Amino acid sequence: MSLENIKILRQETGAGVLDCRQALHTANDDLKIAMSILIEKGFHLAQKKETRVAADGIAFAGVYGQRAVLLEISSESDFVAGNALFIANAEQIARAIAKYNPTDLEQLLQCPSDDPDLTVRQLTQKMVLMFNEKIVIRRFQILNGDFPIAFMHQNGKYGVILNLSVDRPIEASALQLIGKEIAMQIAAMQPKYLTREQIQPAALAAVKAQLQTELELEQAMHKKPPAVLAKILQGRLEKFYRESCLLEQQTIKDDSITVAQYLAAAGSSLHSRIQVTEFYRYQKAEELGS
């Protein structure tokens, strides 16, 4: 049994010496077969850990050509999430998403990874074996655009992707700076929509109903005439728009201007019209109690 093969297996999978020796013994010292045995063990480990909660992880964002990818991979601890090898594997999965353009998680798991012998599912199993934690690809988003931007904040606590469009060529470095400003805005202020026109009628009706209910529960409003109440309700709806729609938000660096005004000024200085056409934001472990 080759000591060099044991060393390679340990480096590749993080498995213990005894596990590597046993896998190589079963595989008659065939490194490729031994690797498959250990990855299959990672699958069984993942099954055993299925009931555990992976409430940490990383929101990874990257740009690959004209395609931006936002990916959340969950782990059980921030120690694993911050590991350089975990992050490298997250990027490998993001590259697979960009290359193969899967439409859902099941398609993604079947995609090849950088290693042609490993699918993304097998790479995830390998990560389980390597880090001895529950590792889950939770969600991903793909954005195709003219000038896609990717931004990660607080070591992957937040990930943002967006696309900028222009009506005349602008130096990439200038657009990158503008895109980063917008991405920081999205990470910090959590807009749900680009513009108020993008809000679906059913969602807007639910917001209006909630504001109406809150108004009715306020004792101070009971004696006000209907016309006044209607104005108050409209004012609160406008506040909702300013908080929820990216282009209507005050910028985080200068609350005297909106994001739309910032883009207009930036575009004017570069003799172009700069627009955000689409964006997505993830927060790691969102809605998982982290």
SSE blueprint and pairings:
Blueprint: H1 3-13, H2 17-26, H3 31-48, E1 56-64, E2 67-75, H4 78-81, H5 84-100, H6 105-110, H7 120-131, E3 136-144, E4 147-153, E5 158-166, H8 172-189, H9 201-217, H10 226-244, H11 259-269, E6 274-283
Antiparallel strand pairs: 1-2, 2-3, 4-5, 5-6
Strand order in the sheet with the most strands:
1-2-3
Proportion of β residues? 15-25%
Total strands: 6
Distance between the termini: 45 Å
Described by strand count, sense and barrel closure, the largest sheet is: 3 strands, antiparallel
Helix content: 40-55%
Features:
three-stranded antiparallel β-sheet, 11 helices, 18% strand, single chain, 6 strands, alpha+beta
Walk me through the structure.
The strands form two sheets. A three-stranded antiparallel beta sheet has the order 1-2-3. The chain has a three-stranded antiparallel beta sheet with strand order 4-5-6, with helices on one face. The relative contact order is 0.12. It is α+β, with helices and mostly antiparallel strands and 290 residues long. Helix content is 49%, strand content 18%. It is built from eleven helices and six strands. It has helices at 3-13, 17-26, 31-48, 78-81, 84-100, 105-110, 120-131, 172-189, 201-217, 226-244, 259-269, and strands at 56-64, 67-75, 136-144, 147-153, 158-166, 274-283. β1 and β2 form a beta hairpin. It is elongated and about 85 Å long.
